[in-house]
Specification:
Layout: H1 15-29, E1 34-36, H2 42-51, E2 55-57, H3 64-67, H4 70-77, E3 82-87, E4 91-92, E5 94-97, E6 103-107, E7 109-113, H5 115-127, E8 133-135, E9 144-145, H6 171-177, E10 183-189, E11 194-198, E12 202-218, E13 228-231, E14 233-238, E15 245-249, E16 256-259, E17 277-282, E18 286-289, E19 294-312, H7 319-327
Parallel strand pairs: 1-2, 4-11, 6-14
Antiparallel strand pairs: 2-18, 3-7, 3-8, 5-6, 9-10, 10-19, 11-19, 12-17, 12-18, 12-19, 13-16, 14-15
Helix pairs in contact: 2-6
Length: 342
């Protein structure tokens, strides 16, 4: 989801300046991640937003923690079709090589299946290296969208039957920010499911219900390390010339700006000046991920379930201006004019 702002393209900062900002930020903040043993008050959370560093929060309790077994999910959704992303390798919304050896930003093939079939697919994929990967990651408010707060009866969802288990907002966040969430999302996958590195225009509250999530994080001032490029858009699809999923270029979709770093955890993928943070969330853990922070997400366990609440970022004041400037800038080169996707 993108925040629509009418703004001019920010100017480029020189390489020396962005490296200096990055090092200065690291020298002042280090690599530690604060952990709270219980949810903050609204005033305390407002202070965390002001500091704008990730925080792990323990003790945030919602009904889904105790209820969401496989049997419960299957029974409550009663065979209703749900949207599931299918990719060859678990990387939806990511860079892949397509026709002619060109690089594309590729969105997943989406199929409708029941929760029973989806959970069966997740289990089968754990033991089948050649099977495509399934990931429930439809996002954009797949449990609650912003419409819910204006007209609850008009906010349809594939997961209405699970709404009693998930609050539509988090009181201490809503009070601190003075707004309701823009979206509340459900994520279900397995160890094949990977989220490519990106940043979002949201204050993000991310809670793990089952399994483990592994985050690689970089602050907004280190976006220069990720070598963004412009990619033609494509989707995965089944074609007459292939037995499996293929990259199918889009004909009328604008190019997508995305990081050319495929896996920031691989040695040499990031410059030595980068300062990535690595954290693991277990079931019951919640992450406050501030607006603009870059994140690459992997997971472990046969079935990993998470929820997140996206709150729109505050665009008044200087914060958004700085985020835009730090992300840069100028003309972003085409990925297919060079061969440095890593």
């Amino acid at each position: 989801m993108a925040l629509e702002l009418d703004q001019a393209t920010p100017p480029s900062l020189t390489h020396d300046i962005v490296k200096w900002i990055s090092q200065e930020y690291h020298d002042m903040n280090g690599s530690s991640i604060q952990t709270l043993e219980g949810p903050p008050t609204a005033a305390e959370f407002a202070q965390l937003v002001h500091i704008s560093r990730p925080v792990i929060i323990k003790g945030f309790q919602i009904p889904a923690f105790k209820r969401w077994t496989d049997d419960y999910l299957q029974t409550n959704l009663q065979g209703k079709p749900i949207s599931v992303a299918i990719t060859p390798n678990g990387q939806a919304d990511a860079i892949a090589t397509g026709p002619g050896g060109k690089f594309f930003f590729v969105e997943p093939f989406v199929e409708k299946v029941s929760m029973v079939k989806f959970l069966e697919q997740l289990n089968a994929e754990q033991d089948g290296d050649n099977l495509p990967a399934s990931y429930l990651q439809s996002q954009n408010g797949n449990i609650y969208s912003s419409r819910f707060f204006e007209s609850p009866n008009d906010d349809s969802s594939e997961f209405c039957a699970l709404r009693d288990d998930v609050p539509s907002n988090i009181p201490w966040v809503t009070e601190a920010l003075g707004r309701n969430p823009d979206a509340v999302n459900l994520w279900i996958g397995n160890s094949k499911s990977i989220t490519s590195i990106h940043s979002d225009p949201y204050e993000n509250i991310y809670t793990v219900i089952r399994g483990s999530k592994h985050f690689t994080l970089l602050p907004p001032c280190e976006g220069w390390c990720l070598q963004e490029r412009m990619y033609p858009h494509a989707v995965y699809g089944y074609t007459d010339n292939s037995n499996g999923l293929s990259v199918v270029p889009s004909s009328d979709t604008p190019q997508v700006r995305w990081s050319s770093v495929i896996n920031p955890d691989l040695p040499g993928s990031l410059p030595p000046e980068a300062h990535p943070l690595h954290i693991t969330l277990e079931a019951g853990d919640t992450l406050y991920l501030p607006v603009g922070w870059w994140h690459y997400v992997q997971q472990s366990g046969p079935t990993t379930i998470a929820l997140n609440w996206w709150y729109d970022a505050e665009v008044r004041g200087m914060n958004w201006v700085w985020l835009s400037l730090l992300r840069g800038s100028g003309d972003v080169p085409s990925a297919n004019d060079e061969t440095n996707t890593r």
